[in-house]
Amino acid sequence: METTYSYEIYNHTDQLPQNWNDLGSKNIFLSKEYLEILEKSAPLNMTCHFIGLFEKQDLVGIAVSQFLDLNKLESFGDRDQCIKAHIRKLILKKFSSHVLLIGNNMLTGQNAYVLSEKADPVKAIRTLKKVAENLKYKFKSIGKKVHITTFKDFHHGSLNNFKIDEFKTNYKYCIQPNMTFSIPAHWKTEQDYIDSLSKKYRDQYKRARKKAIGIEKRKLHLEEIIAYEETIYDLYAHVARNAPFNTFFLAKNHFRVCKETLKDNFLFYGYFLDTKLIGFNTLIKNGKSMDTYFLGYDDSIQREKMLYLNMLYDMIAYSIKKEFKEIIFSRTALEIKSSVGAKPVEMFGFMEHSNPYINKQVYRIFPYLEPTVDWKERNPFKE
To answer: Is the distance from CB of 159 to CB of 348 less than 8 angstroms?
Structure first.
């Protein structure tokens, strides 16, 4: 019996099988439309491939891979200037600058692949391991040797599928959790959320809302996103550069392409003070889940107006009103997201270095590659 499926690797979305979205409709981040966004406006240091898994002629799985060339980055994030951050940059430049992912480095969550109901997940993962080897060979042939191969962001329940020989030499890692906000079915309005908060966190809500008086929030349409493109990118880049660690920076046209391609499934909210755009956030509708995407803000105003916290409350209010089941808040700003009610969900990955000696030391090196974050989990709800 075959232990793997056959597969095709696609460079462009116009090569995808006609029925790609039969599976892509299960996760918007693997739909043809979202993959088109990656094709048109991926970060400059990223090369994407799209993968179809087949049983005979039947499409039984779809996946995405990304190759990151970290040598093309001017900055890995400028917030941390400690010795550990310098060591991290040195390791990345010297030994790990070419990274191949099965998954999406721009997102948090299980977005690497989608399988049909009849597909065998172990067989699919075996096949994706072969795909990764094929891609490594392709990149080597154009002078880009892959240093690290990683399968990224899997829930605990998926880990048994990786207990196969092909992953014996892989380092299993668990990085910062995916902050997920579950919306109870009986909540119908923002007031239901407010009423569920304990006094301390209701006071936090009121204080944040009071601070934001004078700020106008509005949904931007494509023409406005295009008109404000320079400002939007400056606000995004400011936040991205002040992150503790970054492996990519978005292309300037990314938000425009998102709106053009995803249309009503992509939401862009601008925040204005005295008619000046001082912040924005973006959301992507993914079935019954609302995924938070990228944002940006003017830091001096953010602090004074508690803008980021207000954005979180706005996202919660909208998602309750539109009857979503959960909000995927991703893995940054863990404590403040926890303070509005998001809970941490552990995500796992598997990593292998192409140099066998270095690979045996990955467990020592990894803590330098992934900054640790000390944070305290909050529970804002009444007991």
So the answer is: yes
Of the listed ranges 30-39, 74-83, 303-312, the least confidently predicted one is: 74-83
pTM of the model: 0.93
Q: Strand 148-154 relative to strand 98-102: parallel, antiparallel, unpaired?
A: parallel
- Domains by residue range for the chain, with CATH: 6-175+347-369 (3.40.630), 180-343 (3.40.630.30)
DSSP-based three-state secondary structure for 368: helix
pLDDT per residue as tens digits for the range 183-204: 999 999 999 999 999 999 999 9
Rg over alpha carbons for the chain, rounded to the nearest Å, is 21
Which one-letter amino acid corresponds to residue 3?
A: T
The amino acid sitting at 313 is Y
Contact 290, 329 (CB under 8 A): no
Secondary structure tally for the chain: helices H, strands E: 14, 15
Q: Tell me the C-alpha distance between 247 and 245, whole Å.
A: 7
